[in-house]
UniProtKB/TrEMBL annotation:
It catalyses: 2 D-alanine + ATP = D-alanyl-D-alanine + ADP + phosphate + H(+). GO terms for biological process: cell wall organization; peptidoglycan biosynthetic process; regulation of cell shape. It comes from Luteimonas aestuarii. Keywords: ATP-binding, Cell shape, Cell wall biogenesis/degradation, Cytoplasm, Ligase, Magnesium, Manganese, Metal-binding, Nucleotide-binding, Peptidoglycan synthesis. This is D-alanine--D-alanine ligase. The active site is at 30, 160, 290.
């Protein structure tokens, strides 16, 4: 798809949005990334004349809504437990009649839980790596051994590579076990896919060009995502029919998980089995290193235009 095939924004008057709260920060483990994303969105919307204001966390959001100060919310909170990707904020805003960006309650709650998302994908016949559920403070070693090395062990309900362990040998299991003893939540042991890492952003009914992620190190960890300047992002990540297929799969997986609006679907591409679904992000990062702006730019959609288009989805005629 080229830039000329992308529909134009439906509105050009920023007044249609009213007063917009850019919800950021919060108290999740992803607070710092959310603040960086949120400040970028805030600046972009203001550059287009939108009456946008920073709102830090859920208690501040409640105060602003009660005071009648917000007409809609651009949600860029990341994570759960004080973040905005687990359905709690969505339910709050929906109950109060305030439009918001991103998927609704069901899609947000489901995709925050990687285990349940994979169960839905499997039931839908969609490809995802084999996995084992590890109950809170459960037996990490048994789950790893059931899958066979190599595997990833990670929290079922965190993002931004928080608490992710790459298990290549028996000696690597101890660190994951130590983490599990103190972590208050389920863990996911997932068969490691040997192949390239890809992501596809969703904007309404449009799957943006795929991105192949090539970190300078051995894998795409927190540092590579948010700090490193030597990670390569190849966009589009595939060509021809492969590119068409991975975009179609991303849109199907996004919808199967109850999502609409905008988001990002992450893959690993197995050399023999092709693309394998890993997870969905319903409030993707919007920092200088983030992937959705990179994909949008390939279609001639700059950062401010992307923010505008996401916010447009809160207006009648688009899915919120």
């Amino acid at each position: 798809m080229n830039a000329s095939a992308v529909p134009a924004p439906r509105y050009d008057d920023p007044a249609v949005f009213g007063r917009v709260g850019v919800l950021m920060g919060g108290t999740s483990t992803e607070r710092a990334v959310s603040l960086e994303s949120g400040n970028g969105v805030l600046e972009a919307l203001r550059s287009r004349g939108v009456d946008a204001h920073a709102v830090d966390g859920i208690p501040a959001l409640v105060d602003e809504v009660r005071a009648g100060k917000l007409d809609r919310v651009f949600n860029i909170l990341h994570g759960n437990r004080g973040g905005g990707e687990d359905g709690v904020v969505q339910g709050l805003l929906q109950a109060l009649g305030v439009p918001y960006t991103g998927p609704g309650v069901l899609g947000s709650a489901l995709t925050m839980d990687k285990i349940r998302t994979k169960q839905v994908w499997i039931a839908s016949g969609l490809p995802t790596p084999r996995f084992q559920r590890i109950a809170t403070r459960g037996d990490v070693r048994a789950a790893v051994q059931a899958l066979g090395l190599p595997v990833f062990v990670k929290p079922s309900s965190e993002g931004s590579s928080v608490g992710v362990f790459r298990i290549l040998a028996e000696a690597d299991i101890a660190a994951a076990e130590a983490f599990a003893r103190d972590y208050d939540g389920e863990l996911l042991a997932e068969q490691m896919v040997q192949g390239g890492e890809y992501t596809v952003a969703i904007l309404g009914d449009l799957a943006l060009p795929s991105i192949r992620i090539v970190p300078a190190g051995e894998w795409y960890d927190y540092h590579a995502k948010y700090h490193a300047d030597d990670t390569q992002y190849l966009c589009p990540g595939m060509e021809g029919e492969d590119e068409t297929a991975i975009r179609a799969l991303a849109l199907e997986a996004f919808r199967a998980a109850g999502c609409s609006g905008w988001g990002r679907v992450d893959f690993m591409c197995d050399r023999d089995r092709g693309p394998q679904l890993i997870e969905v992000n319903t409030a993707p990062g919007m920092t200088s290193h983030s992937l959705v702006p990179k994909a949008a730019a390939q279609l001639g959609i700059d950062y401010a235009d992307l923010c505008w288009r996401v916010l447009e989805q809160t207006l009648p005629g688009d899915a919120a």
